Known about the structure:
- By secondary structure, the protein is mainly alpha-helical.
- Helices cover 63% and strands 6% of the residues.
- Helix 5 crosses helix 6 (99-111) and helix 7 packs antiparallel against helix 8 (137-156).
- The model has no long low-confidence stretch (mean pLDDT 84).
Amino acid sequence: RQRLEGFKQMGVLTGFWGYFDVWPWTRDRMEPPEKYAVYLNQLKDATETGTSIFFVEGSDNWGPKGRLYWLTSKLTWDSTPGADVFLDDFYAKAFDAAKEPMKSYYTGFDTQAHTDSLYALAFQNLAQGLQLTLSNDAVQERIRHVLYHALFRWRWGDNIQAGYAFPNVDDAKA
């Protein structure tokens, strides 16, 4: 932050470059506890110091990173409302009546070690979210997408990095 402020005082056009997700590095993992807060603090520092250019690399993994991608686009345009306001808006728009269980789902992964107990709670949150949105097909599909990601990560964990999960396409179809 101090470096950004110093460059701005010298009249330099400053930018922010982040790697929120690059497949060979993260393999669609949920971020470790507190990592989400690191991203938000980096964005906060960049916007508060008047950074003009934002460039972030991401992937197509909306299950673990969708909130971050959406929140980044909001904060870089107007950081005044703050991350919590935007996140509440995200949960309401993305998950409708399932706002609270989905918020609990993501908050769990943001703040706790990724143990079997956390996954059990996560699956309960997802089941509750599905139950609350029975009449909303679009939200049901969104929650199922998150559920599929959570099931895959819980079942295979970091074994996908070593190639054990699906060594070939035929195994993936089974």
